[in-house]
Here is the input.
Amino acid sequence: TLNKISSSKFDTPSKRDDFEDILEERRNSSDLRYALKCYTPVLYKGLTPCKVSELKQMVLQSDQLGYVITQVSKEKGMTTDEVTGDAAAILEEMAQRLQLSTVRFFAFTLSKVFKTLFRSICVNEEGLQRLQQAIHNHPVVLLPSHRSYMDFLLMSYILYTYDLALPVIAAGMDFMGMKVVGEMLRMSGAFFIRRSFGGDKLYWAVFSEYVKIMLKNGYAPVEFFLEGTRSRTAKSLTPKLGLLNIVMDPFLKGEVFDISLVPVSISYERTLEEALYARELLGVPKPKESTSGLFKARKILSEDYGSIHVYFGQPVSVRSLAESRVNRSQFNLIPRHIPTRPSEEILSFVNDSAYRLVRAQEENMVLKPWVLLAFVLLQKQAAEDKQGTALDEFTEQAVWLRDLSRHYGLSVLTRSAITPEEELLNQAVVILSCVSYRNQALNVFIRPALLASAIHTAASNRKQEIYNGFSFLRNMFSNEFILCPGATVQDFEEACYLLVKTGALQINQQEVLITERGHRTLAFLTSVLDPFLQGYQVVCRFLCEEDCLTEKQFIPAVRKFIIKHLLTGRLRYIEVLSSDLQKNALAALIRLGAVQKIKGYVGFTHLRVPCWFDRLSGYPTLTPMPFKSVVAHL
Amino acid sequence: MCHTFPALTSDRSSRICSLLYKHGSSMASNSSGSDSSDRQRIAQQRLSVIAGHLQRPVEGNSGILAAECKAQGDKLDVSSERRTVPRRRQEIMKWNGWGYSDSKFLYNKKGQAEFTGKRYRLSGMIIPGLREWMESTFGANLQHKTPAAPILNSSAVQPPTLNEAFLKELKSTGIPFSHDAEDRVFRSHGHCLHEIFALREGKIGRVPDLVVWPNCHNDVVKIVELACKHNVCLMPYGGGTSVSSALECPPEETRSIVSLDTSQMNRILWIDEKNLTAHVEAGIVGQDLERLLNESGYCTGHEPDSMEFSSLGGWVATRASGMKKNIYGNIEDLVVHIKMVTPQGVIEKSCQGPRMSTGPDVHHFIMGSEGTLGVVTEVTMKIRPMPEYQKYGSVVFPNFEMGVACLREVARQRCAPASIRLMDNEQFKFGHALKPQVSSIFTSFLDGLKKFYITKFKGFDPNRLCVATLLFEGDREKVLQHEKQVYDIAAKFGGLAAGEDNGQRGYMLTFVIAYLRVVLGFKYTLVLDICRNVKARIVRECKDKGVQFPPLSTCRVTQTYDAGACVYFYFAFNYRGLSDPVHVYEQVEHAAREEILANGGSLSHHHGVGKLRKEWMRETISSVGMGMLRSVKDYVDPNNIFGNRNLL
Here is the structure.
């Protein structure tokens, strides 16, 4: 069903960039070397480089903060020095201490963790190129969607990977509770803000000035979550305006030429917090963030969280947002350093911008097919359809829903990164594991199955003719199954006995007759042998087309050949991809003298394959089994 | 409780002159005979004889009438002999560009840039660096020239729409007039890029139908009366240096348009040395005014960059600013008394007191009215004794930020020299490109040494450093003291004194740069941000509009005030490959202006509004403000005789 939903030429809407898996390289090269790589990001062209400590000094000495400090000291009857001390303490609590060594440490450990947790982390490289350009030209604000704690580590990880400037990240104070980790995060660029500080003028002044100074000076891209907190339900939360207001301010007041806002959509196939969220929503309180808690959570390392898609959207220029919306000259009537409550006009402008940005995040989310299946399942569940749904019906509904949603602008995912070959092999993995279950019972059915196939292809009901066919097949497959040498007659007898016993056949002296109710049994039994027949046929056919091969070349070559035919739909059974079957087939052909091993050099000639092929082709391996029913058996 | 009042006495030539003394102060002066009034007296007598021959109607003050008439060889009225601006301006000035016909930049046979003529310090010199600068800065090169239409094609000019009745009565007054195509075209434009560009391409739109040259205030009164009587549109014309489309004839105007050229009203009528004022006809151009006053040992100190060509009346009508305003003030500080002829009659104050508390100052309706209310005919201006000592100077700063901080500090300490200007890096490089070929090996060696010292020894980045040019004036001792004070402040901001020569060249550049084109002026308080944003906006707009080469986008701080500063932005781009470069230019300029307003800049520091900047007036001065101006216009000129449609 998934296959059906996702296989469609509409999968990759043209406006979207292609994704690139960054974990692939991590799986193929040294993490340590990666963590220690030369890191020279492109920086903002107007940057005046400064240290973390200088940054703090700039904040404390700014006119803006100075004004508020004087105000607060008058209100509270404190000296300005005392208030400045308070401000310095707030800043100390808040400030980040971005350090490359810590970033490298994270780059190393996260590589390990990500590789265990996720199948792939896909990133649109064009988006990153755009981002690089934006960072060079203007101060940049990164606005990722927020579904998981993972988000900001992931962001920094990707930016480090692509040699882009590392952001400073506005993080909730709750992280600070995690002792070591809190400090580590600080050193990887996080700065901590209290969840609520509504009335605290001084706090607000320190905070907003700190953010603005980092942004204006182009110290680093500023990253924060428009949604304010993680969305527990994977629906976007309504945007919070405070920080957006702060970062837009330098533009509105003409302190910078422009600011680029970059919406980033992070789609998880499954978030780490999946179960946690559900419990939380049901009233089970969320555990306080703590370092030990994090270690306890390491059991999640053993699970598969699928892949992550990170889409860096088109940078949005604040200048163009404000164009013909905001009259910037109004800001010139009050000195810039005096904090003013934004006017209604500005608030509504910021609000509209925030919604536009969250929409941009939503639009670039990558959806997996189960997202649609979940719709169908939940609706069924609500309809108290307890018996479950027939697969066909289910599939039909899902496909209908896919088409509908496509008309509504939904872009379902994204097999785009996977080639059809890969997809086929992925399926084959599942099928071969399934086959290994089936095979356990194969010995029970093999003899009746050989007989059934012989009957199926025989031109008449004559016993002798059927026996000949049985003997041929038995001979053919004696490398495949345990068939005692020289026991052809016994096996034939046994097969006949069993089929008669189940009432599928009536046997007299000369003829073998199929009973009315025997058809079903026989059809099943023929199908048991079909994959093997088809496998041997295809090997023969391959050998007919190939001239001369070494033994080593045989398996890869025949696999390629089979994949080609599977993809064009000429072969039905994916299990013929099994190299075991291919080897057995070759061994059988050698045993039967159709193929000859040439001594002296490794290789073989095949003189009589065509005739064996002809004989085998007498056994149509037909009744093409629709693929979906294979899945159904799973 | 400090009001001022004038004490009136009459002088020997029966003219009324005011003496001012401030109540309770000891600053009184009297009008006892001075050299100039002796000379005046003799002049007056001779003039009145000639005036009798001319038989022109005499009304009001005969002294004035005497002064306005021709007086060949008279010592005071030297302007008729050495007059800079003849009636037929085209005899000495370019009809399709800035300034004198004989002064221009061109590439000589060797492909080197050269500035021709004899008028400027740079004239006749070869400027080896200019070509390279032009090529590297915006890819301009010799292979791509756009030749201008060489001479005016009179047939391209629409025949004049003449108001016969008006013409008939005008003839009877004896005031000279002309409807010659060249004369009319010359007065149909200022120096906005689009105006010059159209002329160079030989495109001529609506031009005045008639040019009149009044000789004095009374001539103007007559012309205005006739215009009102016959419903003719009047457009005052002074120096023609407008950069605000103020001289463009409104295409929708159906009446006959008469250009009132004040250039022949160019006399200094009197100088009052006791009160340090001079009464001057408004048509005089800046250079003549200064030269004539200098002969008597005085100056006004008002030196706008256009002073070679711009006129006193124009300064008043646009609220002009001079480069030495730190000492002498801007035009509003310099003007003591104004006489203006309006359709409702003549407006002037009854006295020449330095300050009045008599409701809103009516001078402020006149200053900046841009020819929409009437014609300024005579102005009394403050004058100063010529400075004993003048010294140029320059300071190199490591970057623009430091330079601005220094200017701020200088303004805070209120010790700004007569002029202090800060050029950004691009402009510094341009100034460098305009350096003439050095005459000796020694000079070039010294230059090299200086460059080495600044860039290598002091570690200044040649792509970031910027230069402030200074001009000190006053008595020698004070100038030297002042100079030290300013250099000390500069040193605190990393500034290095860079010599007199650089400073002087900086100011010379001001006059010469106009030959290369394009100036905009603005005021603001947030220098650094505005400079960066506006320059960035210009570059971006140029790119968006398809300009192939990066534009030159540069600025300089030309004036400092206690509460702000004035910044000039220059931009230039290579228009190769653009189908409509003028339109692109206008779009870019428009965008730049919006950016300036958004960043807290004013619409204009001193060029005025004209028609070019009209659309932003309402947002600049509010609707009520517009209403106030409107109602003044409606009262003073209900029939829109002064119909140039500027400002409102």
Notes: Chain A touches chain B through twelve residues (CB under 8 Å). The first helix of chain A runs from residue 2 to 6. The radius of gyration of chain A is 34 Å. The longest strand of chain A covers residues 260-268.
